[in-house]
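Ticket #4471: structure output looks truncated?

Reporter: J.K.
Steps to reproduce: submitted the chain below (100 residues) through the standard prediction queue, then opened the result file.
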Amino acid sequence: MALMITDECINCDVCEPECPNQAISMGVEFYVIDPHRCTECVGHFDEPQCVQVCPVSCIPINPAHVETPEQLRTKYERLQRGEASAEAAASANAGQGGPG
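Returned output as attached by the reporter:
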């Protein structure tokens, strides 16, 4: 059940930094949530942090992306593996000096 931000969004900027999966970004007119990165904070928190901080309550469940808690946990684990792989690759690249 990825979340979505409705057009009631006032662009207050409080949700974006709260997302542990970097799923929230500025869209054309208001903030948007990437359903491929949104786990509703499963694996990080008991409740979605963006929903907790939103002053206008414009972050409902996205009916186009309904997922079970197990699917959200699997997505969280996949994202964590991807981040670990990206960090390892960045470390490896940083340790390789080019010709001087």
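Triage note (M.O.): checked the attachment and the full token line is present. The helical segments are 49-53, 69-94.
Status: closed, working as intended.
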